[in-house]
Amino acid sequence: MRSVTIRRSVIDSILTYAKMAHPKESILILQGKAGGGKILIDNVIIPPLATHGQAFSGFPLSMLPSALSIMGVAHSHPSGVLAPSIHDLNHFYGRIMIITAYPYDSEYNVRVFDGKGNMIRYEIS
Length: 125
Ligand SMILES: [Zn+2]
Fold this sequence. Notes:
The chain is built from 2 helices and 8 strands, in the order βαβββαββββ. The chain has 125 residues and is of the alpha/beta class. Helix 2 (86-90) links the parallel strand 4 (70-77) and strand 5. The chain starts with a strand and ends with a strand. 30% of the residues are buried.
């Protein structure tokens, strides 16, 4: 499996945004670079037209910028379940999916998955 590195600032943004949106879901677009079997996530973007806590199912993927720098989407699970749902996998976008689950306290509440729902180990730097 490819190696994934996530900037500390990105983890912090994901956790903070999830806390603000709770008990609704939050969604952030992941920006970065991919090459040589490695992925670096170094920025997040608030999705265009996404209102605070809008349900993931209502998110218009067609509104995403079609830039090569989009690595995937991060969203929160207010339920506390730290795994993708069938719905999440059916709507997988990009290269990786990040899920953060309640209580969003630290990186231990953050996991990275591929399009099949397999957990991918990641480093924070
Ligand atoms: Zn989900």
